[in-house]
Design a protein that fits this description.
single chain, about 700 residues, alpha/beta, Calcium-transporting ATPase, cytoplasmic transduction domain A, Rossmann fold, eight-stranded mixed beta sheet, six-stranded antiparallel beta sheet, 22 helices, about 50% helix, disordered N terminus
C-alpha cells in the first residue's frame, strides 16, 4: 500500500529530467524498482512460509514457539524477508519525518503532507513487530506477505493512470536537426534550440519546439497536446507544437519557443502543478492525521489491559490501518487527471475539478468559442465616390497590426484580392472598440460604429439595408466615413448538442457576451438555444455580468480565449481557456486549459467532476463500513484473526483502487467533431437579450 498511498507520482523529477541525454531511453521510476524488489521478496518469503507450514505438520511442536523448531526457523526468516521492508519504511519515516512513499519528494511540499501514509506504515509495522516478538512467526510472515501482495496489486492497478500522465511528461523531444546558414544540417540536443533556429522535421519525427512552418506541408498528429486523434493538415504559415508527430511530409520550421517555454513545456508544468495539489477531503484528513496513531495505540493498550490477548491487539492494529482511507481521494484524482489530459483538458489544481460539478451558469465569448472564429468578408459597402477595393485596402492596412479574428479576416481578404496593402506608419488598438492608424499620410479609424462616433465621425446616411446578421467594421479616413465591411462566422460544429447536454446537466444560465452587433449575436444565440446574450458589450461588461450571476447564487464558469477575458476569467468560480495550445496568455490566465476548440470537452469536464467526487465518497463510505464491520466482528464475534485482518485490509484497499481506476475510462465516448447535420436539439425558443445596463441584468431563474 505504501507505494501508492500518496497516489501521486514524482512528476517534478520526471519533468526536470526531460531526458537531457543524447539518446532515447527510459528509466524505471523508483517505485517500479522498489515494487519489483518487494514482489521478489514476497515470492521467496511466501515459498518459505509454505515450507514452514509443511514442516509444522511433519515435526513436533517445541515451546515457546507453538510450532516445531524447523518450522519456527523457516517462518522467522520469511518474516524478516517479508516484514523487513515494511518496518524499515516505517522507521525511516519516523526518524527523518519524511513520507515513506515512492512518489518522490517533489510531491511532499509540506511538513504534514501524506502524514497519514507514515502512520499507516507505523501501525502495520507495530503489528508485525508484535507478532514476531511473541514468536508467532507464521502469523507474522503471513500478515507481511498479504500486505506486500496487496501493495503489488494496488500499484499495478493505480500505475496505469499514473503512467498515462507520466507518458506525457516524458515525450519531450530529445534531438533536433537544425539547418545551417551555409547549407546542410546538424543534429543537436533539442534543449539547445533557441527562437529563430530553423529545423527540418521528417516523417515520423517529433517536432522539437513550437514554431512556424516555413517550407513544406504535412499531416501532424497533435494528440499529445490537444487530445484530438485526427492528424491536422498544416502548410506554410501554420503553427506547429513541440512534442507533436510529423506523419507525412518533410517540413522546415522556424522555432519560436523551445524547452519549458514551449506549449509542451507549459502542459507539463500544468500536470506537475495539478499533481502537487490535494482535494478538500485530503486536506481535512491531513489536519487530523497526527492524532490517529496515538488514538489507535491508546485503544490497543486499553484492549490489552482488559483482555491480555496479544492477537486481539495485533488484529486491531491491522484493522485500524488507514490505507484505504488514504487511497480514497488521491487515486480518484490521479485517474481523473489522466482521463482529462487524454482529451487535452488540463487542470491547474484539483480543487478546480471539484468545483466544476457545481456550475450552474456559464458565460461564453462568441467569436472563436461558440463560433469557429474564421470570419469571411461577405460584403463591402463603400460610400459614393469610394470603390470597394479602396475600402478593403484601407481597412486591411489599418487592421494589419491586430491579432483579433476580425482583423485577420480582413487582411486575408486583402491578400486574396492581391491588393497592395501598405504598412501603417502608426498603429494603436483600442481594446474592444477598434484601431487607429496612420496610412500613407491619412488618419484611419476602423471599428464599431460607436467607436467612430466617439471620435467625432458621423455615420448617418450609410446604406445598412443588407447588413442583417453580419458583423460590421466601419471605416473612416481623415474624419469621414468611407463605408463598412461585413463579415460572417459559422457556429462551431456540435455546439448546439453541447448546449443541450449542459442544460441536462443542470446549467441553468448559458449566456453569450460579445462586442459584436445585435443581429449576428441574436442569430448565434437562437441557433444554440442560449438562455441570454449581451451584444455590443465592452470588456468591462463581461466582468460585471460574472459578478451579477454570482450575486444571484450561481456558480459561474467563464469560457473564452484568455486574451481579452482576463478580469472575467479571474472573477469566475471556474475559468476555462479554449484553444490554449500555443497561447501563453490563455494558459496563465485560466484555471483550466482546453488545448483544442471542441466544446464537447465542457460537458465532459462537468461530468468528470461529478463522477470523481462520487467515487471519492464511495471509497470513503465503503472504507468506513469495512472498518466498523471488522471491529464488530473482532469484539462481537471473535472471528477475526491477524491473518484474516491482513487479507481483509488488502482487499479493501484493492477495491478502492479498482473503483478509482474506473475514472480512467471516462471520456472514451467523446468524439472530436460532431457534424452539424447530426445535431438533435430541442425546438428553438425565444432568447431574451440581456439588458445593457450596469450591472448587467439577467432574467430571473
Amino acid at each position: 500500500m505504501a507505494q501508492v498511498a500518496g497516489a501521486q507520482m514524482n512528476l517534478e523529477e520526471a519533468h526536470d529530467h526531460e531526458h537531457d541525454h543524447d539518446h532515447d531511453h527510459s528509466h524505471p521510476i523508483e517505485s517500479e524498482q522498489k515494487i519489483d524488489t518487494k514482489i521478489k521478496l514476497a515470492l521467496v518469503g511466501g515459498m518459505m512460509l509454505i515450507t514452514a507450514a509443511i514442516a509444522n505438520f511433519m515435526f513436533d511442536a517445541s515451546p515457546p514457539f507453538g510450532t516445531s523448531i524447523q518450522s519456527a526457523i523457516l517462518a522467522a526468516i520469511a518474516s524478516i524477508l517479508l516484514g523487513g521492508p515494511i518496518v524499515y519504511d516505517a522507521a525511516k519515516a519516523m526518524i527523518t519525518g519524511k513520507c515513506p512513499h515512492d512518489h518522490g519528494p517533489g510531491d511532499c511540499d509540506h511538513d504534514h503532507e501524506h502524514e497519514g501514509g507514515a502512520h499507516m506504515e507505523e501501525l502495520v509495522a507495530l503489528a508485525i513487530i508484535a507478532s514476531f516478538a511473541s514468536y508467532q512467526f507464521l502469523e507474522c510472515g503471513a500478515v507481511a506477505f498479504f500486505m506486500l501482495i496487496a501493495s503489488f496489486i494496488e500499484h499495478r492497478t493505480a500505475v496505469g493512470a499514473q503512467q498515462q500522465i507520466e507518458a506525457l511528461i516524458r515525450i519531450t523531444p530529445t534531438r533536433a536537426r537544425r539547418l545551417l546558414s551555409g547549407g546542410g544540417e546538424e543534429e543537436i540536443d533539442a534543449a539547445k534550440l533557441v527562437p529563430g533556429d530553423m529545423v527540418i522535421v521528417r516523417p515520423g519525427d517529433k517536432i522539437p519546439g513550437d514554431g512556424i512552418i516555413r517550407k513544406g506541408n504535412s499531416a501532424i498528429n497533435q494528440a499529445n497536446i490537444t487530445g484530438e486523434s485526427v492528424p491536422v493538415e498544416k502548410t506554410i504559415g501554420d503553427e506547429a507544437f513541440s512534442g507533436t508527430i510529423n506523419e507525412t511530409g518533410v517540413v522546415e520550421i522556424e522555432i519560436t519557443r523551445a524547452g519549458k517555454d514551449s506549449t509542451l513545456g507549459r502542459v507539463q508544468n500544468l500536470i506537475t502543478q495539478a499533481s502537487a495539489t490535494k482535494p478538500v477531503v485530503v486536506r481535512m484528513l491531513d489536519r487530523y492525521a497526527g492524532y490517529y496513531t496515538p488514538v489507535v495505540l491508546m485503544i490497543a493498550a486499553i484492549v490489552w489491559f482488559f483482555t491480555q490477548d496479544l492477537d486481539t491487539c495485533i488484529t486491531l492494529l491491522l484493522i485500524a490501518c488507514p490505507c484505504a482511507i488514504i487511497l480514497a481521494a488521491p487515486t480518484a484524482m490521479v485517474a481523473a487527471l489522466s482521463s482529462a489530459s487524454r482529451l487535452g483538458v488540463y487542470v491547474k489544481t484539483v480543487s478546480d475539478l471539484e468545483v466544476a460539478r457545481f456550475v450552474s451558469a456559464i458565460v461564453f465569448d462568441k467569436t472563436g468559442t461558440l463560433t469557429v472564429g474564421e470570419l469571411t468578408v461577405s460584403k463591402l459597402m463603400p460610400v459614393e465616390g469610394v470603390n470597394g477595393g479602396d475600402l478593403l485596402r484601407t481597412c486591411a492596412a489599418a487592421e494589419k497590426g491586430s491579432k483579433h479574428p476580425v482583423a485577420k479576416a480582413v487582411v486575408r481578404m486583402g491578400e486574396k484580392a492581391k491588393l497592395n496593402v501598405p504598412e501603417a506608419d502608426e498603429f494603436e488598438e483600442v481594446t474592444g472598440r477598434g484601431v487607429k492608424a496612420q496610412i500613407e499620410g491619412h488618419e484611419v479609424l476602423v471599428g464599431r460604429e460607436a467607436f467612430l462616433q466617439d471620435e467625432g465621425v458621423a455615420t448617418e446616411g450609410l446604406d445598412m439595408s443588407s447588413s442583417e446578421g453580419m458583423s460590421l467594421l466601419f471605416v473612416a479616413r481623415d474624419g469621414k466615413v468611407i463605408g463598412w465591411v461585413g463579415m460572417e462566422d459559422k457556429v462551431r460544429p456540435g455546439a448546439a448538442v453541447v448546449m443541450t447536454e449542459l442544460e441536462e446537466f443542470g446549467v441553468k444560465r448559458r449566456v453569450m457576451i460579445t462586442g459584436d452587433r445585435r443581429s449576428p449575436a441574436l442569430r448565434v444565440a437562437q441557433e444554440l438555444h442560449l438562455t441570454d446574450f449581451e451584444a455590443e458589450a465592452l470588456p468591462g461588461d463581461k466582468l460585471e455580468l460574472v459578478k451579477m450571476l454570482k450575486s444571484k447564487g450561481h456558480t459561474v464558469a467563464v469560457i473564452g480565449d484568455g486574451v481579452n477575458d482576463g478580469p472575467a476569467l479571474a472573477a469566475g468560480d471556474v475559468s476555462i481557456a479554449m484553444g490554449a495550445a500555443g497561447s501563453d496568455v490563455a494558459i496563465h490566465t485560466a484555471t483550466i486549459a482546453l488545448m483544442n476548440n471542441n466544446l464537447n470537452r465542457i460537458p465532459f469536464l462537468l461530468n468528470l467532476s461529478k463522477k470523481t467526487v462520487t467515487v471519492i465518497r464511495q471509497n470513503l463510505l465503503g472504507t468506513l463500513i469495512y472498518i466498523l464491520a471488522m471491529v464488530a466482528a473482532l469484539f462481537g464475534l471473535g472471528i477475526v484473526t491477524p491473518l484474516v485482518a491482513a487479507i481483509a485490509h488488502g482487499v479493501s484497499s484493492i477495491i478502492v483502487v479498482f473503483n478509482s481506476a474506473r475514472l480512467v475510462r471516462e471520456g472514451e465516448n467523446v468524439i472530436d467533431h460532431v457534424p452539424v447535420e447530426s445535431e438533435t436539439v430541442a425546438p428553438r425558443r425565444n432568447v431574451e437579450r440581456v439588458e445593457q445596463v450596469k450591472p448587467v441584468a439577467v432574467q430571473p431563474a
